[in-house]
Fold this protein.
Amino acid sequence: MSMKFDGFDWDEGNKTKIRQHGLDPDLVERFFQGKLWIGPDIKHSQKESRFMAIGQIETRYVLIAFTIREKETRRLVRPISARPMHNREIGKYEEEIAKI
């Protein structure tokens, strides 16, 4: 799944949550420029559609939960959380990316 967007929706809340796992907003933004596996996050989509992206940035495998927000005429990625992937998730990513 690929998505088109115009930028990112950041505030101190989501920046703080990202930093708790040793990542930073700049890394998250660069992450979205690479090869990603993006899928729905059905479990957490009760109030709005949420997605999960898994991929690699530099030497790190990362999982990012996010939603898409429309602000004025812009379509923005709003990161909800980001963390290093677990081994099982790394395996899924490598499986999916090999199909592309």
User: Anything to note?
Assistant: The longest strand covers residues 60-71. The two ends are 10 Å apart (CA to CA).
